[in-house]
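Incident log, support desk, overnight shift.

02:14 A customer reports that sequence design results differ from what the structure should imply. Their input is reproduced verbatim below. On-call engineer (initials T.W.) acknowledged and began investigating.
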């Protein structure tokens, strides 16, 4: 693959990406010399990766935002995630035996991606331990997050999903602050924000929780545990 020029902005964005941010400062110049890449520009609604296509290069989004979608056998589409720069696109599938993308990645706005072939990613992982560890950590965290999403999917009602989520977020504490805004939680539950807020206010009216914006106080932990 022909090597293209990385300007200072692109270089800065690369090292803000979770896969590369832990590369030590004194190794970054060598790291950039070792990267074999192409830079691809996309417009709004362009498809960066198509569901079912072989995923043989690492895509790092350095500008813009994409949404990933999955189509079922009936042709219905389900939004899976929103990914904003600087972040990688589906790195967990790069070294899979069946390395076909399970989703399509569609640009919500003009995007720029750095594309690194799999062989070069493997070389960088062998040469730069910090990159390898960050890569493995990123994939592990994604697997952990996916397991939580599967748990939420198994819960059928918003009430059950919210009870499970609040107990997990509380980490055993009676009072805590939500790490994510309600819009993001609603998206995680695949429901609308008004529907989520309605259930949350119902729980508050029943005396199970107290809500002050993102601050939560659990009054009846047993009631939450009995909801799922």
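02:41 Re-run completed on a clean worker. Output:
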């Amino acid at each position: 693959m022909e090597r293209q020029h990385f300007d200072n902005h692109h270089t800065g964005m690369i090292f803000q990406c979770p896969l590369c941010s832990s590369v030590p400062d004194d190794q970054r110049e060598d790291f950039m010399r070792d990267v074999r890449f192409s830079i691809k520009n996309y417009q709004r609604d362009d498809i960066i990766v198509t569901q079912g296509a072989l995923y043989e290069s690492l895509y790092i989004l350095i500008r813009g935002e994409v949404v990933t979608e999955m189509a079922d056998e009936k042709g219905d589409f389900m939004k899976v995630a929103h990914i904003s720069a600087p972040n990688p696109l589906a790195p967990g599938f790069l070294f899979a035996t069946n390395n076909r993308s399970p989703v399509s990645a569609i640009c919500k706005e003009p995007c720029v991606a750095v594309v690194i072939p799999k062989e070069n990613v493997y070389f960088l992982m062998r040469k730069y331990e910090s990159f390898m560890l960050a890569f493995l950590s990123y994939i592990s965290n994604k697997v952990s997050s996916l397991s939580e999403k599967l748990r939420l999917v198994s819960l059928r009602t918003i009430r059950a999903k919210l009870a499970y989520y609040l107990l997990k977020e509380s980490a055993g504490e009676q009072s805590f602050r939500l790490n994510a805004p309600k819009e993001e939680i609603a998206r995680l539950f695949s429901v609308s924000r008004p529907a989520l807020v309605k259930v949350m206010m119902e729980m508050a009216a029943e005396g199970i929780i107290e809500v002050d914006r993102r601050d939560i106080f659990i009054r009846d932990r047993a009631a939450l545990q009995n909801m799922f």
